[in-house]
Predict the structure.
Amino acid sequence: MSTTHPSPFTVTIDIVDERIARLTFSHPTRRNALSAELLQALDTRLVELAARRIPVVILGSGVGQDVWSAGHDLGELAHDRDPIAYGKPLEQALRRVRAYPGVVIAMVSGSAWGGAVDLAMSCDLVVADETARFAMTPANIGLPYTTSGLLRFFNNVPIHVLKEMFFTAQPLDAARAERFGVVNRLVGSDRLEATALDMARGIAGKAPLAIQAVKEQLRILEDLQPLPVQAMEQIAELRRQACESADFSEGLAAFSERRAAVFGGT
């Protein structure tokens, strides 16, 4: 089954067999950016696949591209100063991936930026080729990341690597990503699709209810990060200040004008 949209992006479902589906997103004019509409379509397709009880989904944007996804569509920030807050399309899609009643495998070829890294890390497994790069770039524009998003990284990469990614906004290359456990399998581009399918077939042959139960238990355990009310209020205030800051406006303007941002800390 294939579903397309008249707009420049597509989100397609290809049923490999009764147990495996490929979910492919594409937004070529925006370097596969995760626009609100694309994210909502992705969310809808995952609901459809869950209703069909497909136990394994391979999520990706194709093989051989320079950019797997440029992350959240920054053009939308002119209308939304906090696009990663709870209830926004990106967070909704990430929760849908994490709660999917089966295994979601990210197949990554090319660089992933910002929210696209979060999308890959929200999947259960990551298969990548040597061109994969993972860059967390919110600091480039002054966008404060969410606590829930940081926890996904906190649970998956060493703390000093997490800080390096968020403080420097420099890409983590494929070899380091594999070393730190961000990537499960690192292969050549010519073997990426076959490797993802082999992994999917191996999982699809196991007991789906048992895997679903383990996945849900692990999701709940990962989310067991109780924070005092005072701490949550402090975090919320820090994020509010950053979202309303002159630095954020400068970051967006610099991105739009293709120049280096000049931040003043206000």
